[in-house]
Amino acid sequence: MSNVKKFMYINNKAPYGTIYAWESLEVVLIGAAFDQDVSLMFTGDGVYQLMKGQDTKEVGIKNFSPTYAALGDYDINKIYVEKESLDARGLTVDDLMHLVWEDEDEDWAEKDSIKVVTSAELAEILDQQDVVLSF
Asked: Could you give all domains of the chain from N- to C-terminal order, each with its CATH number?
């Protein structure tokens, strides 16, 4: 039996206007560097964190969204986006960044990291976690 705990990081805030999204991303990367089994969940306005083409020049804040592309390099490949949150905002998976990871068991084939799931499926995934942190 593995001693590695499963950590779920829930992101439910818009990417800018508060520090929550940036802090979550930093904590996730630190956890992965220490070999935690990391999953990310994006619900509510948190789905905006994964939007393509973010431009923060007008608000004078650093755009940290390119950092999400590095998640696969940290073996973070379980990224769940709540379907109902996308639907409520008129978004689809095509509006989100294309995040991938490389599967060493399949000759380093690139695979999608983002999985769009229903709220019922998210509840099941949450039940499997050892630690849940919400940002």
From this structure: 6-134 (3.40.1260.10)
The Cα 102–Cα 49 span in angstroms is 22
φ, ψ of residue 95 in degrees (nearest 5): -85, -10
Element of type H or E holding 86: helix 83-88
Q: Show the tokens assigned to 3.
A: 């001693």
SS (H, E, C) 94-115: HHECCCEEEEHHHCCEEEECEE
Question: What pLDDT sits at residue 103?
Answer: 86
Q: DSSP per residue over 63-79, as a string?
A: --GGGGGGGGGGT---E
The pLDDT of residue 1 is above 60: no
Q: Sheet harboring 79-82: ordered strands across? A: 114-117, 79-82, 37-42, 6-11, 131-134
**E strand or H helix at 80:** strand 79-82
Average pLDDT over residues 120-133: 96
pTM, full prediction: 0.91
**Helix and strand counts by DSSP (H, E) for the chain:** 3, 7
